[in-house]
Amino acid sequence: VQLQASGGGLVQAGGSLRLSCATSGSTFGDYYMGWFRQSPGKEREFVATMNLGSRRTYYADSAKGRFTISKDNAKKTVYLQMDSLRPEDTSVYYCAAGRPILSYIRESTYYRDWGQGTQVTVSS
Fold it and tell me: Which is it for strands 57-59 and 17-24: parallel, antiparallel or unpaired?
């Protein structure tokens, strides 16, 4: 699966952004598409993921209540709506796809395919 991420930018604290991840290729079964982020000097961090079959979603504690992952089947695109952004959300965001088992859906190493990163900067 090939992934193309977009939608990053500069926003003030409290603002919103919507990231998009366009996909090509086949996804079926227990396929997950997720979002991770990575800041300089830090490890890649789980943000949110979705089981494409069941549409069940999972979020990091830092994202719960503020971020929403969704998909548009017709456009073969997964979105990350980010509201109430904070300066600490500043990072490079990556979309990823794979078939991790449920226990590992928050682990980046279990996602096989990755899009290029998109920078999100939240000013205070």
Answer: unpaired
CA angle, 52 as apex, 49 and 56 as ends, to 5°?
60
Q: Does residue 89 sit in helix, strand or coil?
A: helix
- The CA-atom distances, in angstroms, between 29 and each of 86, 98, 99 are 35, 11, 9
Measuring CA to CA, how many Å separate 23 from each of 10, 38, 75, 84, 92? 24, 21, 9, 27, 19
* pLDDT, tens digit, 9 for 90 and up, residues 63-111: 999 999 999 988 899 999 999 999 999 999 999 999 999 999 999 999 9
pLDDT 10s digits, 59-73: 999 999 999 999 998
